Amino acid sequence: MIKKVILALVVLALGAGIGLFVYKSEPRLNKNYEAESAFFKNHPFRLGLDLSGGSHLVYDADVSAVPAGEVNDSMSALRDVIERRINLFGVSEPVVQVQHSSVVSGAGEQLIVDLPGVTDVKKAIEMIGQTPSLEFKTEAPEGTPIKVKANPDGTVDLGSLNLTEPQYMSTGLTGRYLKRATLEFDPTTRVPMVSLQFNDEGTKLFAQITKENIGKTVAIYLDGAAISTPNVQEEIPDGQAVISGNFTPEEAKTLVGRLNSGALPVPITLLSTQTIGATLGDSAVRAGVKAAIIGFFFVVLFLVLWYRLPGLVASVALLIFISIILALFKLLPVTLTAAGIAGFIISIGIAVDANVLIFERIKEEMRSGKSIAEATQVGFSRAWFSIRDSNISNFITAVILFWFGTSLIKGFALTLGMGVLVSLFSAITITRIFLRTLSFMGEGKVARFLFTSGIHSGVGKSPQ
Amino acid sequence: MFITRHKKIFIGLSITLVVLSCISLFVFGLRVGIDFKGGALDQVVYKDARPAQAGLQASLEELNFGSVLLQPTGDLGYIVKTRHLTDAEHAELLAVLSQGKTDSLTEQSFNSIGPAVGRELTRKAILAVILISIAIICFIAFAFRKVSEPVSSWKYGLIAIVTLFHDVVIPVGLFVLLSHFYGAELDSLFVVAILTILGLSVSDTIVIFDRIRENLHHQTSAKINFSEIVGKSLEQSFVRSIGTSLTVILVLLALFFFGPVTTKYFALMLTAGMFFGTYSSIFLASPLLVLIGERQSRKK
After folding, report:
1. CB contact under 8 A, B112 and A105
2. What is the distance, to the nearest Å, from the Cα of residue B51 to the centroid of all Cα atoms in its chain?
3. Model-level ipTM above the cut of 0.90
4. Cα(A413)–Cα(A415) distance, rounded to whole angstroms?
5. What are the structural domains, with CATH classification, of chain A?
6. Helix, strand, coil percentages, rounded to 5, for chain B
7. Which residue in B has a C-alpha nearest to residue A343's C-alpha?
8. Kind of pairing, strands A168-174 and A134-139?
């Protein structure tokens, strides 16, 4: 008996511990969140794009020019390039996935990009499509008209007029001819530099440019702005150039990364975009949480009114079930979407189902004259087959949906599937441990009252 | 048991509901959302006041995006539906909506789904429905492999499948009405709802059939009154059936009334599915089973 009580207390303590973890690691609940250790801070709920706001982009990759055997390689190269580009812009937790063509998805090779927090879809698309534009320009001959910007009201913007710097014109030598860029440090001054190596074509172009411009300056433009305007001393035939702008080591590193990420290995076109504003997602989260709490409250009310003591036990078990699920959401982590929250809420209902099956069986066994302890024992073993069978079909659905679905459907399938599995566990272990502990209450009238429900199915048929 | 006695009434009621659902499906049809057919949906909210619908509609028509649907939403918002838009076209649309930046607005969501993605999702959805149906039929066959007397096991399976059909068709009929009167659209959540109903409904039927199987197994007397056993099994399990579906329906209703807007119709569909799933396992599956049992014994 004491063993049973200790076991029940251990389960309770574990459940409370898991609940505490969920509470502590949630900034919305925990007022002292800032003071918590890193462990708690590292496990927030991961919200999907529809809840946190963000952009979901689907690109079609044109692999028709790629030999069949190399499609996978070039797709992962594409993913790496895009990932690098996104990382440079500091998006937190971007997801870049390749979706290969198959019987299921049908369509060609696709690249799926999720950008949490980026709601400016135009910026996002530019971010991904953008190759850093590196361009070498030479001094324009004297007499070239000076370009000035016009103000919106039609007057000349004198601020844009720059008479001291020479004018530059394009040479056709761009980042396209770049073989690779490397980060170097000046051996004497330790100043970071970016060293460029052109490919064959670029080398020829560069040699020609340097030959024709000895004594003049050549401007190196990055993304439309001149970052370095070195003087050409002599012809450079080997295709090597060094940009020594006033870089910090970090900037130089970033630039090297961007230059190397360069052109995409395969051309891509945007197939679809989805953007959800942060406010819309926020209200969805609030509504989802509210629905979950109210749903849980309804269920507890029903369980306690209908099943009395076992109902209360089931409510505690349900609370532990919810703590486990939420902790798993945080630890795995599971990306929660509105559909995912729906799956979780449904799984609360399903978790109760197993308990109801057990309690009905226990009541039945009690009506056939068994003691509470016996009835609990037999009720559990008889209900198990029904619980198993009724959960298998839900689990099948969840697995197939997960296997097939888009991110929206996957979120639902995952939370539902996890809910089914954890509910099986919670019904056959947690509820059982608690109920067995309660058998100390004996066989008095009060105990029997607490273990039966208000409405007897088949009134008068019980042999008591 | 009155359910098995009045089985023809309940079977008739179910047939009527199914037929009505099918008719409404063919008469009204389903509105297919941009998930499946491709297209763009832009939701904007104006800061102070939204421009008049007629005027805005006229200026949207000038964009030549084909048919443009403009729906007011909330007090200050509009939802614009068009064909799939490129990035540049999206910018044009926003420019028109903000009327050359004179009306300040925020874009709450923008979805533009290319036709290829829509086709892909359609294919996936169809495959998922087929696969899940096959998996569930296999599961039913497996679950009833041991029952054979007096009704053979494949007939249990068949009835479970008929019940499934019933449980799916009626919520679909309901959705057709929602689609017709409230503009609900067939999207991927709709497909998920259908598939979840499949799972929830079959589990309920199986629990009751499980009981029948158990009671048949314990039957000691040589002469088996099949109808009585089914009635007894129903009596034993209908409180449980109602109890469990009530809890699921309770949480679903919470989701419908208080949950996110995106999952409202989803919750309603599931509520209907859960309700009819429970209804059908008590008032349709078991009466059908008795009907088949009686036919068989008459033939002998």
Report:
1. no
2. 37
3. no
4. 6
5. 2-45+277-451 (1.20.1640.10), 54-131+266-274 (3.30.70.3400), 134-261 (3.30.1360.200)
6. 70, 10, 20
7. B196
8. antiparallel
C-alpha torsion angle, residues B42, A268, A403, B269 (rounded to 10): 10
Cis peptide bond N-terminal to A230, omega within 30: no
Report pTM: 0.75
Instruction: Yes or no: say if B124 and A101 are a contact pair by the CB < 8 Å rule.
Output: no
- Show residues of chain A in contact with B236, CB under 8 Å: 364, 457-458
Nearest to B206 among A121, A346, A390 (CB): A390
Taking an 8 Å cut-off on Cβ atoms, the answer to whether B251 and A105 are in contact is no
Which residues of chain A make contact with B263, given a CB cutoff of 8 A? 288, 338-339, 341-342
A385: chain B residues, CB-CB within 8 Å: 210
Tokens representing A134 are 């590196």
Q: Amino acid identity, residue A327?
A: A
**Cα(B84)–Cα(B39) distance, integer angstroms:** 4
**Cβ contact, residue pair B248, A349, below 8 Å:** yes
Give me the residues paired with residue B150 across strands. Answer: none
Q: How far is B111 from chain A (nearest CA, A)?
A: 4
Total CB pairs under 8 A between chain A and B = 238
The one-letter amino acid code at B83 reads R
Inter-chain touch B254–A405, beta carbons under 8 Å: no
Q: What is the DSSP string of A269-313?
A: EEEEEEEE-HHHHHHHHHHHHHHHHHHHHHHHHHHHHHHHHHHHH
| Contact across the interface for B108 and A350, Cβ inside 8 Å | no
- A322, A296 contact by CB (below 8 A): yes
Nearest to A404 among B127, B199, B238 (CB): B127
Question: Between chains, do B260 and A292 touch, taking CB under 8 Å as contact?
Answer: no
**Distance (Å) from the alpha carbon of B206 to chain A's nearest alpha carbon:** 7
With beta carbons under 8 A apart, name residues in chain A contacting B189: 339, 408
Residue B224 φ then ψ, to 5°:
-100, 125
CA distance A208 to A219: 15
Comparing alpha-carbon positions, the chain A residue that sits nearest to B261 is: A284
> CB distance B207–A357 less than 8 Å?
yes
Q: Which helix (H) or strand (E) holds B111?
A: strand B105-113
A128 vs A130: CA distance, rounded Å = 5
- Residue of B248, B256, B266, B268 for testing the chain A interface, max A β-carbons within 10 Å: B248
Residue type, position A436, single letter? R
Name every residue whose Cβ is closer than 8 Å to that of residue B127 and which is 6 or more positions away in sequence.
A104, A404
Cis, peptide link before residue B72, omega less than 30° from 0: no
Q: Which residue has the tokens 């019933």?
A: B166
Helix residue ranges per DSSP H, A31-145:
38-41, 49-52, 71-88, 121-129
> Which domains can be identified in chain B, with CATH numbers?
2-34+116-299 (1.20.1640.10), 39-113 (3.30.70.3400)
pLDDT by position in tens, chain B (length 300): 677 778 888 899 999 999 999 999 999 888 888 888 888 888 888 888 888 888 888 888 888 888 888 888 878 888 888 888 887 888 888 888 887 666 678 888 888 888 877 888 888 888 888 888 888 888 877 877 766 667 777 788 888 888 988 999 999 999 999 888 888 888 888 888 888 888 888 888 887 887 888 888 777 665 667 888 888 888 878 887 888 788 889 889 999 999 888 888 889 999 999 999 999 988 898 889 888 888 887 776
Contacts of B253 in chain A (CB under 8 A): 295, 298
CB contact under 8 A, B251 and A298: yes
